[in-house]
Amino acid sequence: NRLHATDVTSSSFRLAWPKLLSQETGYYSLEYAPRAEPARKRTLQVSGAHTSLVLSDLAPETTYEVALIPESNVHYFPPQTTRVTTLAEEISPVQILISDSGPHSFQVSWAPVLDSVATYQVLYGPLPGNSVKVLEVDGRQNSTVVEHLAPNTTYLVTVTAIYRSGKEKSLSAKACTQEGERGQ
């Protein structure tokens, strides 16, 4: 029956609190800041009729100190505080799909596409072997065609998401090119 958070994601959470005020008896001041950077405190005024609110545009994997101050013109209510830690950024990519495979090319697609990704790197090279080529793909795209490949060869394809935060996450899949035209 106190201030608490629900629906926590990497960039938002919902705050809920007991009904202390009404529209007529006052309003709430809601203050929140990353625990590591109290100077970045933000303050919102919330109508006394509310008992919940979603805070968004938050940083991932960050602990926030939250204080709810009931500004009542009738009674004094002590501030309520809570501490909420946002989740890590969504793991990406979570799926790689290889399609349209021919003797010399195939298409690589991935999901999901996230706003937090700046660019994707697609690394590919024949197995076994250690010659690897890299394609840079814009963070808004979710597929690319890999060309100039050898026929009837297995390739290891790795898609790396490079986040705006500088973090990287990778996922790999194998792809096989088709046999070339051997004049059957």
Please give a structural write-up.
The protein has 184 residues and is mainly beta. It is 0% helix and 50% strand. The protein has strands at residues 4-6, 13-16, 26-34, 42-47, 52-55, 63-72, 80-85, 95-99, 106-111, 117-126, 133-138, 143-146, 154-163, 168-176. The strands form 4 sheets. A 4-stranded antiparallel sheet has the order 4-3-6-7, with no helix packed on it. The protein has a 4-stranded antiparallel sheet with strand order 11-10-13-14, with no helix packed on it. A 3-stranded antiparallel sheet has the order 1-2-5, with no helix packed on it. The mean pLDDT is 91.
What key attributes describe this structure?
single chain, Immunoglobulin-like, mainly beta, 184 residues
What's the topology here?
Blueprint: E1 4-6, E2 13-16, E3 26-34, E4 42-47, E5 52-55, E6 63-72, E7 80-85, E8 95-99, E9 106-111, E10 117-126, E11 133-138, E12 143-146, E13 154-163, E14 168-176
Antiparallel strand pairs: 1-2, 2-5, 3-4, 3-6, 6-7, 8-9, 9-12, 10-11, 10-13, 13-14
Subcellular location: Secreted, Extracellular space
Protein name: VWA1 protein
Domain Fibronectin type-III: 1-89, 90-180
- Reading the helices and strands in chain order gives EEEEEEEEEEEEEE
Quaternary organisation of the protein chains: single chain
CATH topology group of the largest domain: Immunoglobulin-like
Termini separation (Å)? 76 Å
The radius of gyration over CA amounts to: 25 Å
Q: Judging by the overall fold, what is the CATH architecture of the largest domain?
A: Sandwich
> Whole-number average pLDDT?
91
CATH homologous superfamily label of the largest domain: Immunoglobulins
CATH domain class of the largest domain? Mainly Beta
For the secondary structure, the number of strands is 14
Strand content: over 45%
Structural category = mainly beta
Low-confidence stretches: none
Shape: rod-shaped
Order of strands in the sheet with most strands: 4-3-6-7
Q: Count up the domains.
A: 2
Helix % is under 10%
Largest sheet: 4 strands, antiparallel
